[in-house]
Amino acid sequence: MPLPECDKIWFNGELVDWHDAKIHVLSHVVHYGSSVFEGIRCYKTEKGSAVFRLDEHVSRLFDSAKIYRMEIPYTQEEVTQAILETIRVNKLEACYIRPVVFRGYETLGVDPMGCPVDVVIAVWEWGEYLGEAALKNGVSVCTSSWNRMAPNTLPFLAKAGGNYLNSQLVRIEANMNGYDEGIVLGTDGLVSEGSGENIFAIKNGSIVTPESHYGILPGITRHTAITLMRDLGMKVEQRGIPREFLYIADEVFFTGTAAEITPIRAIDKIQIGAGERGPITAQIQDAFFKVIRAEVEDEHGWLTFV
Questions:
Q1: Residue 159 annotated to the active site
Q2: Which of 97, 124, 151 is the C-terminal boundary of a domain?
Q3: 249 within domain boundaries
Q4: Is the dihedral of CA 171, 172, 175, 178 positive or negative?
Q5: Model confidence pTM above 0.90
Q6: 244 shares its domain with 286
Q7: Which of 107, 125, 165, 173 would suit a FRET pair with 181, their CA atoms being 20 to 30 Å apart?
């Protein structure tokens, strides 16, 4: 499906027409994947349009850039305001937001330090990542034949464009084999995450999720889910998870900015629990959507109104 176009894109401090937001083919990012980015959601709520956990996303963008020695030529507050301005100028009530920081055009070699750091913010209308029906019925996933990178090869804590070459292989393989998504194992054989989502499993009422050193990006929606579970009186354990534990779990679900809270109904064609959204997943989903729709008090300060 083609990307829904909007009127303006924020490009290095200026709002330019969608089709004028271009870079040179010899930009460093094209050849070496030298970019960091975020995926953020703006929701239409009962109180107006609101961006979910905007400050945390912008902070992670700057952290990712710092890891790769990319000095962003704007402050976090300037980027935050630029995101809100881009939403307003495009007159969107709800949208997906993609800020990306990348090495631009100057020199071309593995050493990126001679290239400028460019900043772009785009917004567009986007629905559920894995499909609307998936939020209720769940998705079918496979264990990928690809592994996550080993520790100390690429920094997992950075949301970097180059890392997603691995994710692309996972998603392509899953889709070509008839699955909605893939689950990746680490080099130790333990569960890591999906191609672009974190994962949780529930067994006999106990909730587990991989710790950050298992090759995961510690997602903001993952943190949201953990916080909401604790608010609901649930305990969450972060630890290593064997692949086969997922097969015998009562419930398994993905979390992510795009995926939100998506149940998993089958893994490797093995039915999980009742083969549909389980009661604990439904409870977490309900708490999550009430927050993002501003149907309850925003106790954690997660909503930034446009």
A1: yes
A2: 124
A3: yes
A4: negative
A5: yes
A6: yes
A7: 125
